[in-house]
Amino acid sequence: MKRIDHAEASSKFIKAQDHLDFHDQRLWDLRKKRDRDSESIPEWQELRSLASAIKEHTLTHLADFLEEFERNAQANGVKVHWAKDASEHNQIVLQILESRRARTLVKAKSMLTDECEMRPFLENRGIEVIETDLGERIQQLDDEPPSHIVVPAVHKLRTDVSRVFAATIGTDAKNSDVHYLAESQRQHTRPYFLKADAGMIGANFAVAETGTVVVCTNEGNADLSMLLPKLQIASIGIEKMIPRVEHLAVFIRMLSRNALGSPITQLTSHFRVPREGTEMHIVLVDNGRSERLGMADFWYSLKCIRCGACMNTCPVYRRSGGLSYGATYSGPIGVIIDPTFNLRKYSALPFASTLNGSCTSVCPVRINIHEQIYKWRQVIAERHQLPFVKKEAMQIAGKVFGSPKLYRAAVEALGASVEHLPRFMLYNPLNAWGRQREVPPAPASTFRHWYLKNRTKSGQRK
Amino acid sequence: MKVALFVPCYIDAFFPEVGIATLELLERLGCEVIYPLDQTCCGQPMANSGCHEDAAATERLFVKNFAGFDYIVGPSGSCVHHVRENLTAIPQTAEVTKVRERTYELVEFLHDIVKVTEFPWAAFPHKVGLHNACVTLRALRTAKMSEIDEPAFSKPLDLLSRVRGIQFVTPDRPDECCGFGGAFSVFEEPVSAKMGYDKVTDHHNAGAEYVVSADTSCLMHQKACAERLKLPIKFIHIAQILNGARA
């Protein structure tokens, strides 16, 4: 499979200056709001530790909590299904829908269903799927995946949305007023809620002791998706488990503050029991998670609560956009998860980072994101997935730097021939550095020369 | 106090003045400074690209050059960070561990070990914007990071505030990475350059005449960006200011 070329994709993103500026500003604004909100809570760092510990405990006893969850959900009258992978998940959902002759599915936001590529799967089998989250709906109508796990259409300007809506749901192409566009989408989606045969949600948390699925939203669309149709389905990644309701208190305090810099989402909905005369299904999905749990260096990524704080703070993500990662999950968290799905395809992503560590410092569950990025680079090199030019350059650099003699020869050559200079220092043809930046001039003397000339007496060690 | 001077490869080759200022400054402060002549690099370029095998010989050489000193001091945060946190491509013998533990970034060495409180020879009557390299900020922890609500502290500002006439300006996003990132700067050239442009523009808009940093690699990148943008802004290493450079 072809390697995703993040650098190439980001180059296109950067060329659209007004989009880039908006994207960077909008996400930086979320980061600043997150700072303000977190600073208003004196025990913020304790909360991070607590959230991390709860997730760590749950993940290290995951089988027990999953079974507890299943028992309690069944006792609540919910039908629980287990899906080993994306394909099983999609089959299960299809079977549930077909068993009730459901043709129309309204669904709330779920990264998991994107990960499973469920929508095209169902659509190809004659099921009409309507995303009801505003951002997700914009992306669905534009036939694009979400570019951010919390704000899926953040890379679009309102004029883009106006263009998409005009072409798909018949809004006035000249009107890009935000309220007009949001209201138009709302009016367009309402009838679907009423006529849909089935509704679907993802999950922010699944509580083992009660069998509850908890969803945090700002639009109320998850509630409409679950409360109106007779058939309801929740798809849940197995890492979403938390042991008890009381643990929600920790996560609910952190989720929206990290995601959007607001204290809490408008709605925190608990779905536990099917309404009378309706049926509710829960699909617990693995799709690589158990395998990830077994990876000593990377299992910590399963603690993620999908708040997106790492994306909002990431200077690379803000300037390249989520779509440039070519994966369901983008930004720092995507960089450490995506290679578990396909190492070769996503082998460039861990290099789309300066290892600045800001992501790790904001992460509400203390995932060591930048350390995992660093670690992934080793895995990629060891499994021979580095591009040839980089591999060669590093071999040469390793030889030169490993030998004082070769190193001196290389440095002395700098002054003599300028064209060798960035090649030596930067391991790549001149143009990559020099395209948008000046090349540093080689000085008359190296430090070592100066030292030998000026400090010879104390210089040499025996 | 016997100090080995660690002058990273790119400083040796491109920015000898930073090595000289570091050496002179340490000498002024009473350190016995020795520059091991066979030094090359710390291994970071290879290790950061995932190529640990290729980093091993360099790391072995680093330890050989710097074993036996009380302190090893370098004017480059990211190289020091590599030695301290990531020099793991070779077996971790007692000698290796000792070298790693004794390696300091210049600012933390001056601040925490030498505990310098004055630089009577230093005056720098300019407006400067301080750039903390990401690893000095978030890994070596030489200053408060904006992501964490903690009491404000800044080792580089503590030192610089002892310099006569210096004025500080603060960019809008003081902690934002400048986009160098080693091999990132060439393999992710579009984002890297854009980050650099944004960084120097932010400093320029804040009114900085100079950007000062304890990390030469960030300065190299930002200088290259500012020159291309033709921004009237200069770049100087903290060692140079503390050693008495006037401009």
Q: Could you walk me through the main structural features you see in this protein, from its secondary elements to its overall organization?
A:
The complex is a heterodimer of chains A (462) and B (247). In chain A, 52% of the residues lie in helices and 10% in strands. Chain A contains 24 helices and ten strands. In chain A, the strands form two sheets. Chain A has a six-stranded parallel beta sheet, with helices on both faces. A four-stranded mixed beta sheet of chain A has the order 8-5-6-9, sandwiched between helices. Chain B is built from 13 helices and eight strands. The longest helix of chain B has 17 residues, at 189-205. Chain B is globular. Chain B starts with a strand and ends in a 5-residue tail after the last helix. The interface between A and B is large, with 81 and 79 residues.
CATH architectural label of the largest domain in chain A:
3-Layer(aba) Sandwich
Give the radius of gyration of chain B. 17 Å
What does the average pLDDT of chain A come to?
94
CATH topology value of the largest domain in chain A: Rossmann fold
SSE arrangement:
The complex is a heterodimer of chains A (462) and B (247).
Chain A: H1 6-15, H2 17-39, H3 44-60, H4 62-75, E1 79-83, H5 86-99, E2 104-107, H6 111-115, H7 118-123, E3 128-131, H8 134-141, H9 158-168, H10 178-195, E4 198-201, E5 205-207, E6 212-217, H11 221-227, E7 231-237, E8 241-242, H12 245-259, E9 267-271, E10 279-285, H13 289-293, H14 309-313, H15 315-318, H16 331-341, H17 358-362, H18 369-382, H19 388-401, H20 404-416, H21 421-426, H22 430-434, H23 447-454, H24 456-459
Parallel strand pairs in A: 1-10, 2-3, 2-4, 4-7, 5-8, 7-10
Antiparallel strand pairs in A: 5-6, 6-9
Helix pairs in contact in A: 2-12, 3-12, 16-18
Chain B: E1 2-5, H1 9-14, H2 16-28, E2 32-34, H3 44-48, H4 52-66, E3 71-74, H5 77-86, H6 94-101, E4 103-105, H7 106-114, E5 127-131, H8 134-138, H9 155-160, E6 167-169, H10 184-187, H11 189-205, E7 210-213, H12 216-229, E8 234-237, H13 238-242
Parallel strand pairs in B: 1-2, 1-3, 3-4, 5-6, 5-7, 7-8
